[in-house]
Write a structure and sequence with these properties.
Blueprint: H1 12-19, H2 26-34, H3 43-54, H4 57-62, H5 65-69, H6 76-99, H7 106-117, E1 124-130, E2 136-144, H8 154-163, E3 168-174, H9 184-198, E4 203-210, E5 216-217
Parallel strand pairs: 3-4
Antiparallel strand pairs: 1-2, 1-3, 4-5
């Protein structure tokens, strides 16, 4: 049965307009993005099939072009549309941070860092540089690879903070394993960077570890 033949309250687009996007399942959201199904499958049926094939919404969103386009109903055009949607989401989160103080919008900080780093297949270390009112000046990825005290250089972090004329910053890195629990190495690295940045009067406000769930704050653990 075509989606057009479903009761209006059950059609994904009408349901979204009536109840909001949060009321939709992953398959219903994806069906709106797909717009049409394929022979023998409605858009919702196709969406369910794709979610099962990829192992969920996140792997589908993070798939490369070759993996994405290999599935029936997808292709380079859909991939381009999806990347555009994801980038708009990241820019929207960035705009929220630039408008408000990072300390007054802690969830916005978490959402932004999660959007930027959660999909990375390797460890990435980055900084969110802030002005005197804790508004965002810039976000930069500074190091990639195994993140520990030997691979993150305080001199480079200090150099970039001075280049942005930052008064404060938020450190962040991801755990590709998905487990965001801070390690002893994470704590040691934070202490080393905090000490180096204090010499140029730049405050370290927090260090977030990004995994599959909510980002973990070292400040909330009392480690900053």
């Amino acid at each position: 049965m075509s989606i057009r033949d479903w009761p209006a309250a059950e059609r994904p687009r009408e349901k979204l307009l009536a109840q909001g996007a949060a009321a939709l399942s992953d398959a219903e959201l994806l069906a709106i993005f797909l717009r049409t199904g394929v022979a023998g499958r409605s858009a919702v049926d196709l969406a369910r099939h794709l979610l099962d094939a990829f192992g969920g919404l996140r792997p589908l969103l993070e798939a490369d072009l070759a993996s994405f386009a290999a599935h029936l109903g997808l292709g380079p055009a859909k991939y381009a549309q999806l990347q555009a949607v994801l980038e708009m989401g990241r820019r929207h989160l960035a705009a929220r941070l630039q408008r408000d103080s990072a300390l007054e919008s802690p969830q916005a900080v978490r959402d932004y860092l999660k959007a930027r780093l959660r999909h990375e297949p390797h460890e990435v270390f980055a900084c969110l540089f802030l002005d005197t009112r804790h508004r965002v000046l810039a976000f930069e990825v500074l190091f990639q690879g195994s993140i520990d005290g030997a691979s993150v250089y305080p001199r480079q972090v200090v150099k970039r903070a001075l280049a942005h004329n930052a008064a404060a910053l938020i450190l962040t890195h991801n755990h590709p394993s998905g487990v965001a629990e801070p390690s002893q190495a994470d704590r040691q690295l934070t202490a080393k960077l905090k000490e180096a940045l204090a010499l140029v009067e730049v405050r370290v406000l927090d260090h977030f570890v990004i995994g599959d769930g909510e980002p973990v704050s070292l400040a909330e653990y009392g480690w900053i």
